[in-house]
Write a structure and sequence with these properties.
Distance between the termini: 70 Å
Largest sheet: 6 strands, mixed
Radius of gyration: 28 Å
Amino acid sequence: MRLPTGPDTSQKILVDALEQVQVLRDPNGRMLCLDLLADRLGFSLQAQVLPTTRQHLFSIVLACRRHRSGLAALLDVLDQMEPGSEAVRRAYHVLDGMRAADLLADRERERLLDVFSHVTCSHVAALCRTAAGLAAPEPSEEPRDLVDALVYLEQLNARSDGIPPVVVFVEHLARHLDGPSSDQLKEWNDQQARKLGVIDQLRSVRHQAVDVVLHHEHVEACLVLRIERYGIERNVYVLTDWRQIDPTGWYPQRGEDFTGTLAEIEAQVAELVEEAEVYWARHAALIRIEFLLPHELLNLPVDQWKLEASTDLPQPLGLRYQVVLRSLERARTHRWHRNWRHRWAKLHSDQGQSSNGRPMTHWCSSRTRDLRGLEALLIVRDELVSLVLSAPPPAAQAAVVDEVVIGLRNGLPVIIWHRDDGSHRPFDAAVRPLLNGLGDLPERVRQLRGRAPGAARSTGRIGGHVSLIWDDPDRPVEPVELPMAPCKEVPTP
C-alpha cells in the first residue's frame, strides 16, 4: 500500500513503529540508544528530552532526519540492541517506504516528468519489471507509458541497498537513450543519490548490466556459472553466476558468490537454474547454461548434474538445457584472444560450414597423440574451428600441455570429447554427424544427450558422456587479465 508523501504523516508512521520497540519504552533505554547512535555517527544528536515516550520519539526522529543516514543509523543501533526484533523489522519497512516517498518532492517530480515528456520508450513495462525486482507486487495493470511506471514504482519500498526502484528505473531508462535526455536523467539520479546517501550503490547499478526483457520474437537467455578452487582449500570451490537476457547486447548481471564442496555447488546450481527459469518463464525462448571452468574441472560431468534432485526421477541438466563449457584460463589469458576471435568470426561467418571444401574440424589421433604435430597443424590451418580430442583432459592442477590446451591457445572455440574414452568407434559414430555444420552444435549435443539408452545400438549411452566447449569471445564475464593465471604456458613436449 502506498504511503502518503507528507512528512508529518511519514514521521507519525515511523514513531508508531518505534513505540513498539521494547527498549525505547524505557527512558534509560532511549538514552542508551542515543549514546550508541552518537558513537556510530561520530557526533551527538540535538534531540530534546520530552516528558512522554511518544513526544521523545518524535524529537529523536526529527533530530535524525536533519542528518544524512541518521534514521538508518538509528535503526541499525536498535537492531543491535534488540537483534531479531519484529518491531525493529517493521520500523525498517516503514523507513524504506519513507525513502521512496521522500524521494520525489513536488519540484523534483516535475523535473522528472518534464524529461519524460521528451522521451519515447517502447519497452516501458520491461524496464519497470526490472526496476521493481522479483519480490515486488504485480501492478494492477501493465504500465503503458513512463508516467504509469512512475506512479507504480513510487509505491514500492526501497531495495535492501537503500535505492528506491524509481531511481533504478530512471538509471535503466537513461542507459537505453541517447543525447540530452539520457544526460538529464543521469543528472537527476545523481542528485537523488546524494540526497539519500546512496552514491556508491547508484554507481554499482550504473555499472551493472541491465537484465531487461524487450519484446523480441526470439530471446535467448543465458546463465553463466564460474567454478574455481577456493584459495588453497583442497575440496572447496567458489561458484559465481551471471544472468543475461538483454537481446540488445551482452550485459550479464552478476549474482552473489557461493562457497562449498562440489556436491553443495551442484545443489546451488539447481537452485540458480530454478530461479532463472521462474524469472525468465514468460520471456525466454531458449535458456543456455555456460560453465566457465579451469582446466582441472573441464572433465566434470556438469551436464549430468541433477535438477529436482529431491524427486523420484531427477532430471539431468543437459537434458533440459543446452549445457556448454568455457575455458577460464583462456578468458584470463589475453595473449590467446586474437586467434580465438579470428576463428570464432570464421565459425560465425560461415555458419560452421566450410566454404572451400576443406573440413573445419580436426580429429585428434589416439594412436600417435603427436602434440607438436597438432600445434603445427592448427597454426597452418586457420580455417579449423573445432577439435575432437582423442582423450579427455586430465584433472591436474599442475601446468601441463595436452590436446585441449593446444586447442585453446591456438584459438579453437569448439572442442568436443568423450569424458571416459574418446578413441572408441561408438563415440565417432555418434559425434561425426553433429559436426556437419557447427552453427547449432549446442542444440545437437543436447538432443544427443536426450537419446534413450536403447535408441541406437552405437550411440545409445554416448550422449551422457559428451563434453562440449563452445566458447564465444564476445560474451566475456572476466573483466581483466589476472596477474597469476592458473594455467602456466609451457613448451609443447
